[in-house]
Fold this sequence. Notes:
The structure is a single chain. The protein has strands at about 20, 25, 30-35, 40, 45, 50-55, 60, 65, 70, 75-80, 80-85, 90, 95-100, 105-110, 115-120, 125-130, 140-145, 150, 155-165, 165-170, 175-180, 185-190, 195-200, 205-210, 215-220, 225-230, 235, 235-240, 245-250, 250-255, 255-260, 265. The chain is mainly β. The chain folds into two domains: about 15-120, Pectate Lyase C-like (3 Solenoid), CATH 2.160.20; about 130-268. The chain has a 19-stranded mixed β-sheet that branches. The protein is elongated. The relative contact order is 0.07.
Amino acid sequence: MSNIPYRFNPVITPLPPITAGTNGIFVSSGASVISSGIIMSGAYLKNAYTMRVYSGGTAKGTDVQSGAACIVSSGGTARNINVSSGGQLYLSSGASCSGAIIESAPCFGFSSAFINGATVKSGTLTLDENNSFDTGSRFVNLIANGGTIIISGNCKVHSACADMGGEVLIGSGGSAENTVVRSGGSVIVGSSGSGMGMTVASGGTATIASGGLVSGALFVSSGGTSIVQSGGTLGGGIISSGGTLFIKNGATIGGNLMSGTGAVIITE
């Protein structure tokens, strides 16, 4: 074990099956490791293996693969974690996560968790918790890069992005500030969802569905498309020449709307 660059919490008896490697520790099946007050770097988890990170513990550079799970409790931290197909990541109340990459995996942020920087490549990141009254957002710099981010349940996100086929869905009670959609990405603001400050760049599509609201400014650049469906509300914005805004009959435009030539299309 001399090549393993960290130690286990001594309360774990017996130790799970391990082998040393260039990325740290590898656990293959059926065991659990607890990180509490220590840093665990480069863990590789698969096949029903569970890592539990408690208060003061840090899981750094962890690879969570099929059948494995990483559970981060209050006061625990996950950094630069990669969640592959079939893996699971759970962030409990007061947990924090930064630099996550998610692929084909169900991942959840609950009850006052912190996420600063996550890229969803082909899985789904679901944020469903009441943090709408926080002075600062707990979810920051989230990117749907081929995957899906779902925001609901009075959850607030600051700085989200959808591109490369990625999708951001803002559902009932959810809100997102300073959202960017581009390059094949899409954003849908659903019923009782809201956005403030949204930029639709070339190749991006933003839809405000019935009951959805985008307040503040909507910026649609050349090559971008936005749709306000019947029952949807747009608080105003700027549509550049070459950008397109479809306003369906029954939609509401609640503020100033500036546009380049031919940029706004009103349809039935």
